[in-house]
Amino acid sequence: MTMVQMRTSLWYGLAVLLVVTVSSVACSRGEAQANNPAPSGGGPAGGGRGGGQNQVVPVAVATAVQKAMPVTIQGIGTVIAASTVAVRAQITGELTSVTFKEGEDVEQGQVLVTLDKRPLEAALQQAQAQLAKDEAQAANARAQATRYQDLLTRGIATREQVDTMNTQAAALDATVASDKANIDAAKVQLQFATITAPMTGRTGLLQVHPGNIVKAQDTNPIVTINKITPVYVSFAVPEAQLPALKRYMAQQSTLPVSAIAPTDGGKPSVGRVNFIDNAVDPMTGTIKVKGTFPNEDRRLWPGQFVNVTVTLTSDSDAIVVPSAAVQNGQQGQYVFVISPDKTAQMRPVTVARLAGDDSIIASGVRPGETVVTDGHLRLVPGSHVSFKSAPAPRATP
20 to 30 A from 90, CA-CA: which of 43, 156, 174, 386? Predict the structure, then answer.
């Protein structure tokens, strides 16, 4: 037998063995199905959507309620200090002492830093000495003018001499006045050596430390003070919402606004809208709005990003469902409504707006109806459901 014949015989044997094996498996499965017939009316074991309407699907549900809900405008804003002052020196000198701590609150007029006063005190003393000298000369000139006036009346002095003496006296009087002004200027310069807080607020980082030379009106301030009670929050509103904002502002003169940091788990800080910018930004299509917050608890910090909500009015008859109940499909948004016989119905809805975790429904759901909030993936219209928990009525705020 040749090699080719041996390979042909081997492949033929393997093919026969494979056919026999497949036939045996098929027979075994047929016998098993004959001995264990499927129960009539049973649904498929799989749980995917489209698996049959007779399958009971566990779902979480909630009740649609009708209650008063605020009409709001939401945005992202930035906290701005009510006032900011960069403290700089008005004279040049050596910084000798710092009398405040970084990050502490200071009162208006409180001493912050002092500069070397010795050169300024010496300049003041020099101006005072010059004044004393010129006052003595002015007194002598006035006396001379008086004597020459007497000599003129007796015909001894001439009118020219009298005028000269009066001029000298007047010039020295002016010099005395100039010396007094120099003394006042020297006193002001001496006062500039003691730098006080121009307003009440919270200090920032100290930029210059004792021993350094401070220059007059230097670019870098010694310290910056921010007034953080109250604070402002600036945010942008889309121009499409500007008419409503202006309308309600005209009715109430001001609107309540709340702000909270994204990571803050407490209650939002409450303030009032007091400013709408005079132009819409053509680049972004938004307009700047600013609110004032008392910030007595100091939860808002200058430069911080916050979530802002402006309350325009309140809708007393809003139909509210959890936002988790609203699904998006090819035909738009919809919810699954549970009938009294615990079957699911797909209902198209129109969402008017969102309010936190709730959706305000404009049409498609009636108050008191039960909607599915979890378990949508296994539902088809007509599916039978079971409740994971009883639908509890949603509380009215």
Answer: 174
Whether the CB-CB separation of 93 and 213 falls below 8 Å is answered with yes
Q: For the domain that residue 205 is a member of, what is the CATH number?
A: 2.40.50.100
Distance (Å, whole) CA 272 – CA 253: 10
Query: pLDDT digit of tens for each residue in the chain (397 aa)?
Result: 444 445 555 545 555 455 444 444 443 444 434 344 434 333 333 344 444 456 789 999 999 999 998 888 999 999 999 999 999 999 999 999 999 999 999 999 999 999 999 999 999 999 999 999 999 999 999 998 888 888 888 888 888 988 999 999 999 999 999 999 999 999 999 999 999 999 999 999 999 999 999 999 889 999 999 999 999 999 999 999 999 999 999 988 899 999 999 998 889 999 999 899 999 999 999 999 999 999 999 999 999 999 999 999 988 889 999 999 999 988 899 999 999 999 999 999 999 888 878 999 999 999 999 999 998 888 999 999 998 865 555 544 4
Question: 266-269 long-range CB contacts below 8 Å, 24 or more apart?
Answer: 266/299, 268/309, 269/293, 269/295, 269/297, 269/299, 269/300
Q: What angle do CA 220, 226, 229 make, to 5 degrees?
A: 180
Helix (H, G, I), strand (E, B) or coil at 89: coil
Report how many domains make up the chain.
Answer: 3
Rounded CA gap, 120 and 87, in Å?
Answer: 21
- CB hemisphere CA count around 164 (13 angstroms): 7
Is there a single domain that holds both residue 201 and residue 141?
no
Omega into 230 within 30° of 0, i.e. cis?
yes
Task: Report the DSSP beta bridge partners of residue 346.
Answer: 336
Q: Is there a single domain that holds both residue 186 and residue 198? A: no
Same domain, 135 and 173: yes
